[in-house]
Amino acid sequence: MKMMPSILIVATAVAAVLGFGGQDANASCPQQLNRNYASSLTFTIGTGAFELHGGTDNVHGWVTRDNGGGRYDFEVSAPLGLNLGHRWRAWSIRSVTVLLPGCPWQVDYIRAISLRTAFAGTSDGWTLDSIGVVWNGIGRYEGSSDVRYGILLHIPSDPRSSILHFTGADPHRVWSHAVMP
After folding, report:
1. Exposed e or buried b for every residue in 33-59, given b needs 16+ CB within 10 A?
2. Cα 129 to the chain's mean position, in Å?
3. What is the rounded distance in angstroms from the CA atom of residue 95 to the CA atom of residue 23?
4. Does position 123 have pLDDT exceeding 70, yes or no?
5. Mean pLDDT over residues 9-30, rounded?
6. What are residue 109's phi and psi, to 5 degrees?
7. Cys bridge to 39: 24, 137, 148, 169, which one at CB 3.0-4.6 A?
8. Structural domain boundaries of the chain?
9. Which candidate, 61, 112, 123, places its Cα nearest to that of 87?
10. Which of 8-17, 56-65, 85-94, 126-135 is the least confident region?
């Protein structure tokens, strides 16, 4: 199962809807030239053989950022998780866009993407089959700004095995992966 075309289409649509480009809504935020800045991330997640139940069984998205002054983890999903408390059926693919807190983040400061489960029920777990994360935002080059997006992480589905099975026996399991340079 290939995800890349859908990720790029979603990222382009999000950039257009959220208004990245033209007038910069974050003009008061300090930004350097020749850098890309992310205002949001689009997670595209494939569920494997075990569905994510939702309700009290959810998955949360986290981003690790390091700007040279230390490494920090930020939760970027709503209180009910990336799935917003909804059920994700087995063998489904979902895309969720989340806004990053504060001023747009310099893309090359983003170091890792993490998923953390919160299972409160009697969950039999959830299978992460594939994941892609795209940043959406603006580029600052030679005094101009334009719509930009790029791939931070892409792990496609593998017919031989899933990426990870989060189990109900370990209700707060963490999966983390470094982003693409």
Report:
1. eeebbbbbbbbbbbbbebbbbbeebbb
2. 15
3. 26
4. no
5. 43
6. -90, -15
7. 137
8. 4-20+34-178
9. 123
10. 8-17
pLDDT at 152 over 80: yes
* Protein fold of 4-20+34-178: Lipoxygenase-1 (2.60.60)
pLDDT band at 17 (very low <50, low <70, confident <90, very high): very low
Range with lowest mean pLDDT among 29-38, 73-82, 111-120:
29-38
